[in-house]
Amino acid sequence: MIECGLQNVDYPELARQIKAWALEAGFAGARISRASLPDEARAALEAWLADGCHGQMDYMARHGTLRLDPAGLVPGALSVVSLRMDYWPDARDAHAVLADGEAAYVSRYALGRDYHKVLRKRLQALASRIEGEVGAYGYRVFTDSAPLAEVSFAAQAGLGWRGKHTLLLNRDAGSLFFLGEIVTDLPLPEDAAEEGHCGRCTRCIDACPTGAIVAPYRVDARLCISYLTIELPGAIPEALRPRLGNRVYGCDDCQLSCPWNRFARLSGEGDFAVRHGLDAASLAELFAWSEADFRERTAGSPIWRIGYQRWLRNLAVGLGNAPATPAVLAALAARRNDASALVREHVEWALARHGADAR
């Protein structure tokens, strides 16, 4: 048992216990990094921002290199505990959905409950358990919820390595997991980083439908389907719309092509189970949702945050790329006078793709 009072803490033993408690809390792994990154990370981020690769994600530029400095978020931060939770759901085969032009492809991570809520609750419980053992200490929990370079810290801690698609890769789970962190002022012993295991493989780069992975370890968000369907507030650039195919929320192609994901296992987390049949829904079916339907069926889901108009915008593009079946054309025609100018513009484009008059 670790004695109360930080001056009496056996930090190596505490680190071992934290990793064990993390598994008990439902995480699949935990590793520890120092709360600082090398100068190369700062230079790479500054260059990425200078090149405008963040698109309209203005908060990225506002926060700048703060995401590399946990002490700016937690005064006196010394350690970052990085944790992963597997999410791959038992759902209709992803490749089959992508091959079905009338189906709507939703990124597999978004088929269930919003991961922010799930992980934050578990992270807080773990942080509180640490406090119950050692007494009051400084900490803050994160899960993609603040400017923190979570992949960089997780890689530095040896939780995996950064793949050429910029996601973290793990020998046992590929990249199909969420990350969460506890940034703390506890001087925990750091774990060793793991060397990368991508070698000469470029499958993720070759698989990207829009060429968003512009170089190994560098993604231009302005080309990324996840950015276009989730973060971009306005019209999707016309030149890119045909490349979206039927992807209406996010994109998994770089992960689906990655050999390491053959080791990923289905998540046993009930909160990540498919909701409302979103793994097998048709584009036309989802396009017919009213705003009330959207709010009800995406409540508690990450999809909810993009709002109804962006949801319809994305679906209109998917319908424009779908086979010109009666159901597809009828769905588009039903919204040619939609109240949203954003939706109408994408419907007009989609109808024109099918040789139909939008007016």
From TrEMBL:
Coiled coil: none annotated. Residues 189-218 form the 4Fe-4S ferredoxin-type domain. Its EC number is 1.17.99.6. The active site is at D144. [4Fe-4S] cluster 2 binds at C208, C224, C251, C254. Cob(II)alamin binds at R67, D144, L168, L179, S226, C251, D252. GO terms for molecular function: 4 iron, 4 sulfur cluster binding; cobalamin binding; epoxyqueuosine reductase activity; metal ion binding. It catalyses: epoxyqueuosine(34) in tRNA + AH2 = queuosine(34) in tRNA + A + H2O. HAMAP family: QueG (MF_00916). The gene is queG. Belongs to the QueG family. It comes from Crenobacter intestini. Keywords: 4Fe-4S, Cobalamin, Cobalt, Cytoplasm, Iron, Iron-sulfur, Metal-binding, Oxidoreductase, Queuosine biosynthesis, tRNA processing. This is Epoxyqueuosine reductase. GO terms for biological process: tRNA queuosine(34) biosynthetic process. It is found in: Cytoplasm. Pathway: tRNA modification; tRNA-queuosine biosynthesis. SUPFAM superfamilies: alpha-helical ferredoxin. [4Fe-4S] cluster 1 binds at C198, C201, C204, C258. GO terms for cellular component: cytoplasm. Pfam families: Fer4_16, QueG_DUF1730. Catalyzes the conversion of epoxyqueuosine (oQ) to queuosine (Q), which is a hypermodified base found in the wobble positions of tRNA(Asp), tRNA(Asn), tRNA(His) and tRNA(Tyr). The keyword Iron applies. It is an enzyme of class 1 (oxidoreductase). Its cofactor is cob(II)alamin; [4Fe-4S] cluster. Monomer.
